[in-house]
């Protein structure tokens, strides 16, 4: 029992550590995310007896979601910017891959209607790979372009123009139907989407329309999360969409212009030029750095009379900014900000925002401080989009942040143990544990990642390093204890953060699965099934982390590359330039971005308020 | 008497002709415009006894404006985009140039406060030339940038980006104070302006502030004129500001997107893709041409399913589009539009606009036709800005479209005659007429232009060509008849249209006058005074017409160059490129515009709706 507790403690500790030392770069604070796992789970589930049994029970099964764990009608496939509301697959007949879809005698009718919601990283990556000869693909999104989001902070100060990082969907994909509208309701029972023309140009009385689907890929991404903080929506800017970035750009210049008006007091001028960033994650820090560059390199000379009044403040809830990065980068960033005069307030929680200031509680002292601002940017995390919240409500998932599937690690642990506990003793010997975990490892990537992060080569190492148990060979695990602790990992371990990198890879993976579906019924290549016989059809999704950047302004950049390489400085900034130029989705945007960078070198950034 | 009537008839004919064959290019339909004359008049008025007598009567004189003709407190200096509400000078002490301003013992106090409203062509041209060592210059404008307006139509379809034709004021002028706000009231009595921070970023309760001035240059330009047509403001786009162009760009793409939605009828799709342009002037025609290019070169391939439903219609009140251009250009444009399938409805008046269509009355048949549209652009003419309308009301000029000065050709004619009519016979001999007109010619540029346009070398030619009077040497003119007919010219002849070219030249001229003020008191160089003795201080403003372009799309362009040269075709388009590239106000915008043009060649125009 003691060893079991140790394993539990170890897992818990790992989970806690992961919040401060997360190797992937999230666009905001990372959250619990199992989309990819679930997608893989779903795709590898195949057409076994169980799923057949659950076909056509979609409508019935949904309301009792939590109870009918084995229901297979809905699957989170993840991707996009949302670890919360990512890429979702709603299958038709209770199972994703009905064989008849590919063996239909009428090829026209046989083409299943595949609808993709969203044109972000996940959606576009999927769409670029999907074989439109096999599927009748439709895209629904309120914006008719794809945005290269990693350069969004650069748009806020004009280093890069908004249009330089946007590529029209119709340019990228010519053979699919695109409807510029917003999905406002998912009716999974009748397999219908209610869409609404969200723009100003619309036919009166015909704003809404319905779209049928067989497969639905929800890649709407997430939205900024205010965590219910009062006044955020009214008085803060977000940095999630292209329009947000443009609004910020306009506001920054406007703050300077207003501060130059002749009738203001010095205090009012000072407030007008106080820029507050709530959230010390990569987005917040990059924005603060870009803002500092804009002010020091361009605006200072144009607004000489007020330049000394400018303050930039980053409010961070944790101990350090960039706490998901290597501590060297985090430290470098803090030191650079200190040199630049950018204030970093750590261990502070924002209680309230009003028109003029942010009310901040310092965790250490409990003191409440008003931080005045001319402009505030809220960049603390992401939340679920209304259409998904609504959908989750209709299927009874009110307590969740992500659309859930039927299979969860914490539920499957019981099965694993049952299978593994051959002597039915209620506890596992070390060999039994090892065998089981090897199986589980294949199916649950979060375990795999956890082991890698702890530099364990083998599942059994988890037990070995537990203090005091290093030499202990015989070990007994209580199933409930172990289940509980694994569920804890399940809940806290942030498997794939909401980054472009993850979403793009997932989209491509999912499209490849869809394209290969007909073959894979006969040639399954996935891992061995735990519940059921045979193999899963697809190999699990493997995320290849290519590293992450933290641009820190003044041509300085931090980078974490695979293999724990950390690089900081000017050369890293050039690496950043090369990578982001090469990663552009088209030659057009590549040329535009390169020109924007060059332009900035020659002419500085534009300060026109528009 | 008969000859006098002939002159009158001739002048009337000339005035009528000028509405159809106007050599300068207006940004919209040209209107009566005497700003430049009046500016010159004002500046050349000097400090004679009369003006001294009127010093410090500003407040009193204003309400009785029309009656106190000789009042010298306010002068229309013209320029900018407004032949209606152009560049205005309000002098302090009833006269523009009080000598004491330059002989003050305290150089700090001696610097007169010169306030410029507006950052358009007139204002910026003035500001670039004005000597800030002599004047304490302040600029008030709701936009902190200058726009290269001739390229505005190119922004509507994305050939050129909005930011590429905007240059921040603070970049162009570093030594002046700029206040980003809108002047909402001119208090000429107390020499105070009421200004308002027009942006979203402002200090609550302190939106308004006052600015004192000694000299006020109003260069706020004009705004689009709906001529009271119902529904225009609500349902039409204008094309006057950068934001207008961007909104049009967004709307065009949005019309295509909406037309692609699956639930619309063919009729609705067709309406959505009907683009209507009201006004066949240079702006309307250029926009129609740019729109045609966008559709045929870029959108047709991206929206193949609806491309055949697109219609572009130009509604023109006159007989021909581009009727201010040479008839060859006008004809070429009409033929090109016919080939392209752009419908031109001439002799049509718009009665009403509603959400879905434009109600048009065909002048010939009297028939009323509904022309449906997805997007309509209103480009028929320009009107006075509210701040000027309000100001004109306070000074009793309610019946005018332009701010008037105290001296008008029609008023001065009486003086001219009195002086010339040496024998006091009440009629003029031909020699008397000749002498008088030579004097008048110097002072009233509209006469000069009129003579040039009629290819007269000499004033007396006006009489010579009058039918039946060719040989008649002796001629007697009734002063009232002549005055009436000259006043008619005065009213109808469009001296300087509201173009960038005119405004820029006037701004520069006015600044040069201001800069040379101290010298010119001792060394006047203007024409001889008519009322009073001596010479005027400044030579009159000479407008150098550099030609005008009419871009017609598909790399075709029409051009009228000085000396009645007309050029049409692809080579003219290249001339257009060269001229507009060279005329850019900064190397930055030049580089950006050139890049935009190049970008379009390689990658086409962007169709992202943002």
TrEMBL record, chains A, B:
TM segment ranges: 73-92
Location relative to the cell: Mitochondrion inner membrane
PANTHER family, alphabetized: EXTERNAL NADH-UBIQUINONE OXIDOREDUCTASE 1, MITOCHONDRIAL-RELATED, NADH DEHYDROGENASE
UniProt-recorded Gene Ontology molecular function terms: calcium ion binding; NADH dehydrogenase (quinone) (non-electrogenic) activity
Major site of localization recorded for this protein: mitochondrion
Annotated keywords: Calcium, FAD, Flavoprotein, Membrane, Mitochondrion, Mitochondrion inner membrane, NAD, Oxidoreductase, Transit peptide, Transmembrane, Transmembrane helix
GO CC terms of this entry: mitochondrial inner membrane
Family in the record: Belongs to the NADH dehydrogenase family.
Catalytic activity: a ubiquinone + NADH + H(+) = a ubiquinol + NAD(+); a quinone + NADH + H(+) = a quinol + NAD(+)
Gene3D superfamilies assigned to the protein according to its UniProt record, in alphabetical order: 3.50.50.100
The protein's name: NADH:ubiquinone reductase (non-electrogenic)
Signal peptide per UniProt: none
Protein's organism: Marchantia polymorpha (Common liverwort)
Domain spans labelled EF-hand: 408-443
A Pfam entry, by short name: Pyr_redox_2
UniProt EC number: 1.6.5.9
InterPro entries: EF-hand-dom_pair, EF_Hand_1_Ca_BS, EF_hand_dom, FAD/NAD-bd_sf, FAD/NAD-binding_dom, NDH-2, NDH2-like_C
